[in-house]
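Worked Example 4.2. Consider the chain below.
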Amino acid sequence: MNTKISTTRRLVESALMIALAVALDEFAVIKFPFGGSVTLFSQLPIILLSYRYGVKWGLFSGFTMSIFEFVFGLKNLSYVTGIKGVIILILADYLIAFTCLGLGGVFKKPVKNQALSLALGSVVVSVLRFICHFVSGVTIWGGYAPEGTPVWKYSLLYNGGYMLPELIITVIGALAVGMLFDLNKPELGRERKKSRAE
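Applying the procedure from the previous section yields the following C-alpha cells:
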C-alpha cells in the first residue's frame, strides 16, 4: 500500500483542521471576561496535524490558527495601553500561545503508543500555552487583580481556571482519537486491532 500523502491532501486536511480548531474556539463552552475560554477540543486539531505531518507542519498550522485567533480577538487590544502592552498581548496571548500547539506531535517517535504520544503532546502544549497566558497576565493584566491579591496569584488562578479544564478535555480527546484511529495511514480509518495470531 502506498502510504505517501499527497501535498494537496495535506493542505486540504490542514485547512479543514485549522478551520475546525478556530470554530471550536469561537463556540466555547465557557468564556472568561478578559479572554480565555473552555472549549470542546479546540486544541486537538492542531495537535493531530502535528502528529500526522510532523512538528514543523504543526507549528505552521498553529501559527496560522494564531493569526485567526488574533483577528477574532482584536477587541482585547482596547484593554491594554502602550506599545509594550500591545506587543506582549499579541505575542503571549496569540502568536506564541497558539503556535506552540504545533508541538503536539513531538512524542511521535520516542513514544510508540499513538494514544499515549498524543496525550503527552497535549499536556506539553497546554502547559506551554498556560505559561504564555500566565506571563501575559502578570505583565499586562495585573491591573485587573482584586485589591490585595498578588498579580502572579491572580494570573495563576485566572488562566489556570480555563487552561486546566482545557488540558483535561484535550487529553481525553487525544486518548480517544489515538485509540480509535490510525493517524499514520493516508486514509484516516479506524485503528485495526491486531489478532492474537499476529
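Helices lie at 7-26, 44-53, 55-72, 82-99, 114-139, 151-180. The beta strands are 30-31, 37-38, 181-182, 189-190. Compare this with Example 4.1 before moving on.
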